[in-house]
Amino acid sequence: MFCVYCGHPVPDGAETCPNCQRPALAPPVPPAQEAAPEPQSAKATASFELPQTRLSIPVPPEESGDDDLAALTASIIQPAAEPPAAPTRAADYTLPELEPTPPPQVLPFDLPPRSQPVPAAAATAGRKAAKAAKEARPRGKVKTWQILVGLAALLLICVAAGVAVLYLTRPAWLPFELPQLPVLAGPKEAPAYLVAYPNRKGENEIFWQDGKDSILLMEDVLQNPSDLRFPVAYQGGQAVYRFWNPAEFIPGSSQVLVRTLDGDDMRVLLVDPGAKEIAPLEIFASDQPHQVSLLEDGTIVIVEFREESKRAYVSRSGAEAERVLKADDLLLVPATQQWIAIDHSSDGESDTYTLVGLEGEEIATLYDGAPVRRHAVSPAGVYLTLVVPVEEGEELVLIDLRAQEEISTLDDYAAFPEVGFADNSDLGWFIAEDEEGWLTLGATLDGEWQILAEGLPQLAVTASADRPWLAYLTMDEDGEESLLYTADVEQGTVQQVYSSDERLMLFSGFPGIPLRFFAEERTSDNEVTLLSFGFDGDDPLVLFNEDQVENMFYRVWSDYLLIEYRMEEKQYLWVCSPYDEDGFLLLEEWEGFTVHDLLPDEKQVLFSAREESDDDPVLYTADLVENADPRELDDSDLSFRSAYFLPDGKSVLYTAKLDFDEDASEVRRALLDGSEAPQVVAEDALLMAVNWQQRDLREYGMLYPVFLQESSGMQTLKTNQVYTLTLAEGEQELQYRVRFEEERLYEVVVRGAANSKNFDPAISTLDMAGEELRTGDYDTGLDESLLFSPWGEGSGLIQIANQLIAAQPVTFDLYIQSTVVLPIQPGQPISGTNSADAYLGAPWSESPFIVDIYGFEAKAGSSYSVTLTGSDEVTHYVYMLDESIGYIGGSFDYVNGSLSFTAEPDEDGWVYLFVSDFGQTDDGKFDPSLDHSYRLTLVLD
pTM of the full predicted structure? Predict the structure, then answer.
């Protein structure tokens, strides 16, 4: 009789195996008559045996102080039996044996039958008999069919060798492309998981484990995922996987991706647990930031982020990645396996977009022109949209990547703050802002833009994952009512589906929830209602409604929507379907909980929680039904992490944290029915990854609110014109758009009304993205001015802010002065005359600043001499300013009709010379009867 677990001989009548101390339940099945496995049901997945760890260190009862715990540990963690014949890839450790504590626990799943061990003498006799019988066999003549079979086999071998040579060499003379072999994307194997054994040096030993083997994959692997500076992305179709652990299974593959440090280099390696010898293949190593992508055919693509550029690397068939491309910026289009390389000119005045093949071969130049402010690529790699500056604002350029040509442009708008595409289609949209600051929504399916809505004060947009539909949120003209619309882009029709006097927040349609999008309605006293809408305009479904809600989180999990929220310092969990209103409260008034996993088919949820603040965390499972009673599986001193349902649907695998130290944790397994105490699978270890839970983001993720573009009805102001404006009571700032031109300086002047109380203005200039460029607040009082140089031709923003809180509306005058900058070159004297037509300051100023402004390109560290000669009737002065209107040098010592000074700019860039005089009458007015002429000379020393 032999043990069914380890194959060791068991004396007749013995109840337990003398080797593994397990019950000798039945004799093993002879090798020639192995029992067929029992058929699985349609819903069941493959059961497997959890390994008997060889790394567990038992705690003697006298040290632990807990006899029951010691007995349980001894009964679960058995000393390793004589290892099977594959020790080259399995980690074997010799640990002190435990005294057996009968009866040992019986695993609640079937173990595969093992072959009977054959005595050595019997095996030798059998081999000799077989050899003698073979030698005694009569030899016959070779028949014709045997020769033909041999020739056919030889021909097949030659063909296979030829194909292999073609794939290895890929000669250039081939008139066709060889298809890529999916090396990594193989079928998923039986359930397996990764266990990490951390040490206090901040490193891990990573083991691959299943029901049979425990295989050491790598040593000295990074310990803490936060040490991994750059996540790895998996892109297949439109799904994106983010790997945060030092070791992870590659989706759909038997391989494991491992990242570790070697000095300053981050190494990316592939390890195959099924190989005869565990030999990690290094794909990439770099001391620079990088991101790794896995394409559907198994090709690995890596983008390395350098200070001044990005570099692309490609690895096929698990080979070392080779550099294929370098550019200032790179966009990967996985659907077509192409790159879009972006290069900026050295002077920053132009951008070039180039379509490039995955291996680095240039296909076509897509765009070469003004610097691009934003871009978007359709998921299928069909369209590219670019937003570029033009003289009258911004232009939207649409490029067909298939034809490699520009197919349309829009330039009738001041700005395009947002462009985008739907997740799973070539449906594109834009949000534009007109001259008066109102928003417009446009969309395209076939390359032709159509306007869906315009004149909107605010706008948030989301797209259907399945149909050519958009949903958008806006407000009425008075800003008092939230309005929700859907648009059928194919038909060009728009319909209103909801309105509310309360604040609405639009949520994106999730890829795993076809034809639906969501909006949250929240009142001033925090009554929250979650509404589910159909793009086709059906009545909304009320999925959730509750008062005094805080901290809402919407989690999508398969066909369920889990809503986590807090009320009065307690946590709740609401469960519902996006398609009906029959939701229910699963957890109520808990101190806190974390949802780990879900079994949609079995309608069970796995979570850890504290019911009260002084409770230890407990691992629970609960049925997804109303009034379900959670079932306790295990408790821990600190927390539970990485908890998963096993594929058998009968047990869970998880990490129990015992303390804050990294090695103060263990991997356990617990039965869902609670019939047995939890088993320790690995001591001082962490469960790092499992291969049966490679979640697709189309089935699992969060609902996020859509970014809201808002407009203040911002009008475009003209220069050299006085505007009378009003800040409403309690309002702190106003913004206006201004069109700037090159070779000009601008001064913004604000004058508050004499009866304006609590008004202290500050002036700021911003770009169209809202980034502040220059701010001025030099005086406390009603008047303020700001002199600035624009950042280039195009639109910008002027912001007027009141630094005080006004108890009543504030009225003020705003004037934007535009002054021409005259070019001057070193060594070329210029004759000029100050006149009343060239001044800075508002028309109402009693003493406008009479000035001529000159500009030139300066080099940092160079010394420039300035000389001015003029008449004795006026007093001239000159000073030098940099691009930010910072003082560089100057002279006010006008003696005997001349002055001079030398200055040295600190930076390269545009430098200004201001030339002015005091040729004014006693009442402060410009006196044209005086001689205001001068001669200005600039010399590079």
Answer: 0.61
